[in-house]
Write a sequence for this structure.
């Protein structure tokens, strides 16, 4: 099982890629003749994330994470079996818009990217996956959960994070288990979700599993994350409906707005329960909303801070960018690792050979999951799984299941109590 590479940490986690010959058609530059050779060669990986607009904070982090992975590979000697070819990251700004992401993906491929990583927004990833399939260029999704992305029979798209189905099912199961263990089973759950493919898929999957666990669902409220500026009306509707839990599936900016509205309206909930929420489990969230976010839960993918390599990457990110790394950025780091590892086994930048090598990946992850990164026949990471986190005393803590728990969950965790 191969280990991840961390830039500027210890002398080495060397890139132990088998030496072998290989052609380098698209995406390499340097000596001619179609052979990757010498330190002058570069292999381009395209990074597609929202670098501007409403989702820019996460997008910038993810692009930074991808660049740190490229730096780590290059500092460890590049792709050994391609004569030390160096990686180069070419970034595209999707702006969180599907049509922009589609055109940026096409541009990066035309400019020589041998593979793509991205994109944070499920609607964008749907379009990019179609472009990747049409051009037969591998696409490794770091963050985008909508199930339908990988239900098209695509051969060139792979996903690292858990699918919406897995996130939603586990999120509802965790709510049932935690509330029952506390002696106060959740009964009526309101749902507040962003209206795109990601939020809609989470809401639908959560509803099915929660109802099977004996919970009542309602009201269900959707919103446009790009334009919403206040949630007072929505949270007031939740309060008037008498729900005891509110499940929230959305992004960072809207998660902050939800916390502020809950603080204002005081809906009397036993818990605010995020599922794949882009705010509630980030290190920046408690500092931005203060006491308004205390006790908030989130069932989501999570960087594994029990892993020394993850700790080293988090330290490197803080030193390099002056900020705490978000889990999404770690997934972008892992996505580049997957491509570099596959290049080292394929010993070629031919997209079909690279795709085949990615499909056979078995690579340690910096994310807490059930085993190494490994893809099933649909491109899903078969070991991806969420864990439950909670804001406890102003910091995000892992609380469930027990094998990942840093502390016990606090339930009920009534906001404003």
């Amino acid at each position: 099982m191969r280990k991840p590479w961390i830039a500027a940490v210890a002398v080495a986690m060397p890139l132990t890629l088998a030496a072998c010959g290989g052609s380098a058609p698209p995406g390499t530059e340097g000596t001619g003749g179609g052979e990757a050779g010498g330190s002058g060669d570069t292999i381009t990986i395209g990074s597609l994330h929202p670098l501007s607009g409403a989702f820019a904070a996460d997008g910038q982090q993810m692009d930074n994470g991808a660049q740190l992975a490229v730096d780590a590979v290059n500092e460890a000697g590049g792709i050994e079996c391609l004569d030390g070819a160096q990686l180069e990251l070419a970034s595209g700004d999707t702006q969180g818009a599907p049509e922009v992401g589609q055109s940026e993906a096409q541009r990066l491929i035309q400019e020589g990217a041998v593979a793509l990583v991205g994109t944070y927004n499920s609607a964008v990833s749907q379009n990019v996956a179609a472009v990747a399939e049409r051009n037969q260029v591998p696409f490794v999704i770091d963050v985008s959960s909508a199930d339908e992305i990988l239900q098209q029979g695509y051969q060139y798209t792979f996903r690292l994070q858990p699918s919406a189905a897995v996130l939603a099912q586990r999120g509802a199961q965790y709510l049932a288990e935690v509330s029952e263990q506390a002696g106060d089973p959740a009964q009526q759950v309101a749902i507040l979700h962003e209206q795109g493919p990601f939020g809609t898929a989470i809401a639908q999957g959560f509803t099915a599993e929660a109802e099977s666990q004996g919970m009542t669902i309602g009201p269900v409220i959707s919103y446009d994350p790009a334009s919403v500026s206040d949630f007072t009306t929505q949270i007031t509707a939740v309060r008037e409906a008498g729900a005891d839990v509110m499940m929230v599936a959305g992004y960072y900016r809207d998660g902050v707005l939800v916390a502020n509205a809950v603080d204002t309206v005081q809906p009397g909930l036993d818990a605010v329960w995020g599922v794949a929420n882009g705010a509630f489990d980030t290190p920046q969230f408690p500092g931005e909303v203060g006491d308004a976010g205390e006790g908030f839960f989130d069932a989501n993918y999570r960087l594994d801070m029990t892993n020394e390599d993850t700790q080293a990457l988090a330290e490197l990110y803080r030193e390099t960018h002056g900020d705490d790394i978000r889990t999404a950025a770690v997934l972008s780091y892992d996505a580049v690792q997957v491509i570099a590892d596959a290049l080292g086994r394929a010993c070629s930048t031919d997209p079909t050979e690279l795709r085949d090598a990615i499909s056979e990946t078995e690579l340690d992850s910096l994310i807490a999951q059930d085993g190494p990164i490994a893809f099933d026949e649909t491109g899903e990471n078969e070991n991806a799984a969420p864990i439950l986190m909670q804001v406890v005393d102003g910091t995000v803590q892992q609380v469930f299941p027990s094998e990942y728990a840093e502390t016990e969950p606090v339930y009920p965790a009534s906001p404003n109590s």
In short: The longest strand covers residues 42-49. The chain has eleven helices and 13 strands.
